[in-house]
Write the structure tokens for this entry.
Amino acid sequence: RRDSSRNENKKHLVLLRDGRTLIGFLRSIDQFANLVLHQTVERIHVGKKYGDIPRGIFVVRGENVVLLGEIDLEKESDTPLQQVSIEEILEEQRVEQQTRLEAEKLKVQALKDREKEVQTEEVRGSQS
Amino acid sequence: MFRYESLEDCPLDEDEDAFQGLGEEDEEIDQFNDDTFGSGAVDDDWQEAHERLAELEEKLPAAVNEQTGNGERDEMDLLGDHEENLAERLSKMVIENELEDPAIMTAVQTRPVLQPQPGSLNSSIWDGSEVLRRIRGPLLAQEMPAVSVLEYALPQRTPQAPEDDRDLSERALPRRSTSPVIGSPPVRAVPIGTPPKQMAVPSFNQQILCPKPVHVRPPMPPRYPAPYGERMSPNQLCSVPLQPGRMSPSQFARVPGFVGSPLAAAMNPKLLQGRVGQMLPPAPGFRAFFSAPPPATPPPPQQHPPGPGPHLQNLRSQAPMFRPDTTHLHPQHRRLLHQRQQQNRNQHRNLNGAGDRGSHRSSHHDHLRKDPYANLMLQREKDWVSKIQMMQLQSTDPYLDDFYYQNYFEKLEKLSAAEEVQGDGPKKERTKLITPQVAKLEHTYKPVQFEGSLGKLTVSSVNNPRKMIDAVVTSRSEDDETKEKQVRDKRRKTLVIIEKTYSLLLDVEDYERRYLLSLEEERPALMEERKHKICSMYDNLRGKLPGQERPSDDHFVQIMCIRKGKRMVARILPFLSTEQAADILMTTARSLPFLIKKDAQDEVLPCLLSPFSLLVYHLPSVTVTSLLQQLMNLPQSAAAPAPSNPHLTAVLQNKFGLSLLLVVLSRGEDLQSSDPAAESTQNNQWTEVMFTATQELLRIPQAALAKPLSIPTNLVSLFSRYVDRQKLNLLETKLQLVQGIR
């Protein structure tokens, strides 16, 4: 619970509710956690790779912010992650998305089956 | 014609001669205009400008005289306005109407356009950025302006009068909604997007775009005896009128040195006189934007009701000296924060010591210094936001408001306490968390009212919500439901019951804490409440319907089919009386195979083992016997054992079932061994059951057995009573009763 307002003009990392990760200079913040980010970069992570897309200035409505943290500029480069080009990371992301969707489909199917099973059981149960 | 009272003396329609020399007007014009025209504001420039214009007058007597019909214009010309763009306006006017007349055209063209003079204070906002640049002062807060912001001499008397007909307040920004507690963020005269360079002040707030004769006086310490020392920091201002220790950004927001709100001055001519920094006493409801009660003022005379506008403040804006209050943090938390800060500082120091790193960091600092967008947020604004964040930490009941935070730090403390016990001795003082006892002020919300209006606005806000939708609950008729729907409804009802019972459970679990915090008198009532809630919980679980001697098992079984229900029962059990709990246990035992089947996916039943075990060790012999019977589904009479015992098989194949069984057996053994002189009937019953039990156990193939959660130690002695050595060995191996076999 440190005062986030003390961290102006240091690089910040913001995680949004839709899963995006933004990195930029926090220029302004208010009590709703509305943010103004300057020289923002959207960082996409897939596995051990990441790619940065420069985005410019962001004004983020506070309700969409999940968390916000200061980046230690000295430690920033000290990461096992590997930076790749934008095209590459987008491709990786697409692939990951696909596998996830397929897994999701299987899960949904399994749940549906279970639901049916429960219902039939209960029908039988209430009948007995 | 709209007129300010201040300018009543200078009517447009009257005698031209009245405007011959403004000097004549001094007596008739009231003090407000004194500021505008008098010595307070513009000094010599005024007179010089006037002279210049007077010269102009002389230059075109002919042109003007020809237009006597246009009285307004005449008056304008003769006004001796020291405003330089009056000339522009004049020329515009003239051009529009007198396009044909060559004489006038030439006259107009030759009229020197008054350039905004660099040193002049007569800048109007339409002069362009060059002039505006110099108008800094109060607008870029934290600076002491020596310049008056705006000055309009007599715009009212200009032909722009029709525009001016509108109320000044229309031009102003709509008043920002103020929360009665928090206030509003400090208003910036310069919009936040402005780069911090001193150069351009690109756009003004509308508040400043006021065409009215507003003269904002710069803070003039020598002139007006400030009611309080100028050096008084906002901190001091805050602290005095309020409860000590209670900080709210509202005072903070209202305190900043806001000088030069032209709007304010417009509203309150008298305000400018002596009441520099007229303060409103804190009103519970709507607060004027800028007001803050000064601690040492003589009681502010309420001669002139402040009106809806903000007030002029003459506070020296200083960077507030206080840091946001960290007392609300748990002491452990604060310690951690300080530690981290220390580490950071140490790191920096270390790095600075090192060669390369040092230079790297200095370049980093350079970069920061050169960053033109740095510090777009003023320190004041940052602190204001921090204040709000800290305010959110204030609470009268931290356990209620911030349960996880409290628990987390309590756990940490316990850990460190445990370590200390092992260590040398307490090194750190173990501070107890002393939460600030903030009295919760009752804020009765008063809806916004405008003065002079009839009735109230129907406004819905966070504090005053309005019902938007009328949602009516319609219960469906039982007839048209399909079987599936009924099933679904039943499940939903069960879920609802679980939720209600869970709420009761959470309350009951909390009573211990409340008991400690409560007063002596309240305690019996608390106990009653608690008892009552426990009874309700039990009733909910068993689903007792009126008129039923014994509730059917069905209700309970339904609850137990749902994962949350099982967990809940496990938590409720410790609170129930032994009889109630035993009843629950028996019901479970009866329906165990069914429950086991239902639990196949959740696998939550084992959570019940612990509370059940605890219970079993308190049960009397009779109950234990019947329990065992239930569990193994043993026939009451040993007459005809069934060829197969699916009930028992199911139980044994399940981890929970087997564990429970073993626990029951163990308890039986305890009872037997502890009290050999027990009643014979009970004894006999037990013995019978045991015989049957062992038979069944011997029958079951080992492969079918589950792995129990725990194996009580006294089972060997138990079985040894009832079976011979051979079978005992068999049982031992089968149930893995002997440690070594594993």
Remarks:
- Chain A has a mean pLDDT of 87.
- The beta strands of chain A are 11-16, 21-29, 35-46, 49-60, 65-70, 82-83.
